[in-house]
Fold each of these.
Amino acid sequence: MATLARPLTDAAAAPTAPAMPDALLPVYRRAPMEMVDGAGITLRDADGRSYLDFTSGIAVNALGYGDAGLRAALHAAADGLLHVSNLFRTAPGERLAAKLAARSFADRVFFCNSGAEANEGAFKIARRWARAHGGAAKHEIIAVRGSFHGRLFGTLAATDRPGYRTPFRPLAGGISVVERDLDTLRAAIDAERTAAVILEPVQGEGGVRVLEPAFLRAVRELTRERGVLLILDEIQCGLGRTGRLFGYEHAGVEPDLMTLAKPLAGGLPMGAVLMTEDVASAMQAGDHGSTFGGGPFVAAVAEHVLDRVSDPALLQHVTETGRWFGEQLQKLAMRTGRVRAVRGVGFMWGADTHEGAGAVVGRARDAGLLLVTAGDHTLRFLPPLVATREELGAGLELLDGALRAGPG
Ligand code: PLP
């Protein structure tokens, strides 16, 4: 059982309102425990059991739970305006956009409320630019094998998960998924028809696959040659998770657009589309919008998160501790004989298991370690970026036991 980094409040364990699980749409396979409190990288359930969290709320809680700086930023933001809509200017969103632009390739930023929404926005913006440069025929979006870009209509068409797609056909048109290799992309990209290619520098849901820097550079070159935009989806791998502020920095390439979400506002819903001035210049007032996007409360909190995950000391910690974590995972794989392959970078790792990954996740949870899968046979490790070697080592010991308790 994990030990807590700081004592959790008694109130947290007190019974809450009666559960009404039947009122929720049953689209999630939720674990049975009800989470009520957290500190550092530890979560506690309503029965008082604590768990080391290697999921970070699926790559959201970069600063862990109960972070003092994040709480202070939230309280300060709550004293100001929460929402006024995009009918008016507000300073926090303007400041956040300026900082995101200053710290990335981008010149302009559009704010929305989730990852899928950010990618939908990026698709629209790419099409607008492509229409301006090649007419209506130039509208197709190309994604690659293993991709996950969201579950709204446009993004579902770019997400390589047959189980998610099939029940909702026909999917949005003009969006296709092709093999993740250069020859296929060379054949698929047509300067007359293609508006954009979208890639995750590290595919998350698709099995934690780190795209080769050389592949990313080659796609960048190819898209530039053919007059096609490159969209990088850094919703899961961006904002410090790979040890750089943005995943593309590892390859030394710059996209035309990039999407962010998950950790951006510390657990509040927020997404962003970042783009160059060239791309932005195709967009006119009224072309896109969002009631809540970039509101003052969420933007003020996101500014705090951005400053924290931009801190070179945190990025160095993620790089060095992440490398160590990968080595430990490799050793665990050799030691237990239950893991076929280990992949990853920074605080984003995957381990392919012989048995179904869901069974391992269940046993790890029973032992006090929270994991998420990335496909049927891949365990995914996404600990908060503030996790220490000691905490990660404690989690790996629980994982060792959970793996060995399965079939040999
Ligand atoms: N893109 C990537 C790479 C993701 O990992 C996800 C979510 O897992 C999304 C897009 C969709 O984000 P959201 O669930 O916020 O819509």
Amino acid sequence: MVIKNITEDITPSNDWELYSLSETSRRVRMSEVGANIGPQGVDMRSLYRQAGVFSYDPGFANTASCESDITYIDGEKGVLLHRGYSIEQLCETASFPEVAWLLSHGELPTADEKAQFEKGLMREAHLHEQIRNFFNGFRRDSHPMAMLCGTLAGLSSFYGNQGADQRHKITPEEREESTLRLVAKMPTLAAWVYRYSRGLPLIYPRPGLSYAENCLHMLFSMPEAPWEVNPVLAKAFDKILMLHADHGQNVSTATVRMVGSTGVNPFVCIAAGVAALWGPAHGGANEAVLDMLDEIGTPENIPAFMKRVRNKEDKTRLMGFGHRVYKNCDPRAKLMRNICYEVLNELGIKHDPRLELALKLEETALNNGYFISRRLYPNVDFYSGIILRAMGIPSSMFTVFFAVARTAGWVAQWKEMLESKVGISRPRALYTGPAFRDVPEKEKQS
Ligand code: CMC
């Protein structure tokens, strides 16, 4: 197949034509779909109707599944923009709730909107008391992501049965309400997952604390000894949340959009996103990075580890390295490394063996032909685990807080999907199984 812009040889236009080299008679004309920046798209929707063929793109690496105003990534240059603002500027000047608002509403909040939003986040941070009962059904040693996924889906039975009735379309007001509720309740749920797994009393959100402070308060406070607010750690935690808030059409976000396209309620859409995020190739990588660092142990073992990575039979990967989209340094990784220094400094940790090992590992990989030729650079997960561990958060909780942060992006993408009025998602497969055949006759019973 050849695809070319017909501007070159026919009339000036934004149309493209696609034709088979062997069967030039099968010409299909398709229009270009404009993007504000970055590569343009070719509208393939009429391909099957016009030519009776499907576009084939396993893993969707070359497919734009939607139009979106939310996040732009230039993987070649290492650029990440939310609604046009660079992640570097947002990290410098905004807070996580402001970015959550920006993702969902398109603009940074005014002072009044910010105050109202923060008030709403506080009001909605509480969970229905019966939700405490959910936890008793889980083994205490369950993975926190299993508990988060299960309890989150269960919230749909308390907060509106939106989407359960075919005749009821989720209204704009309900969308707003669910967006607020989900962003507000996730830290409480996440903290309770942790507290339950440790057999600790469940702690309620405290008015007057910021979103990030409340996350840390609900994790670490004890009835007799409330967590003492540390502005440096709270700010660092807020930035970590912000750096994970949205990242375009990654697998968990695409899952949320796909599940949401059925019209089902948003709590289960986000639970589906949590399930997708759990995988080690996606959000589970931050936990895997720490396991990897613990396994390597000391810098002397790096060469042997690198040998295992290069040996494909071994199936070992350098966790926290590589990205489907970034073929340059992930801008979030650079910011995360700075936060790492800030946190260790605040905690008075002069020498962190894990950080020293990670820095050495990064340097080794960036100068290694295997990684250079494949354009593999550190991603957001390479340093986040070191920071969270230093703050006293166990590694099994890392992906849970990734999910808390990504909820801001998921709900924004879910809203945008509903507003776009695109129908239910339904990819096709190139069928490669047996063609028509008869069911063999059953052996006669003797
Ligand atoms: N360590 C060693 N080799 C790697 C790595 C790695 N981390 N990542 C990719 N490669 C190799 C891979 O083996 C393949 O080599 P070859 O061409 O010889 O077969 C080549 O690089 C291309 O790999 P790929 O799997 O086709 O690349 P991808 O774009 O599909 O995968 C990825 C992206 C993130 C799944 C992968 O880089 C990876 O598994 N990284 C480690 C896990 C990780 O850190 N995940 C977090 C991603 S960022 C957070 C998020 O968005 O969720």
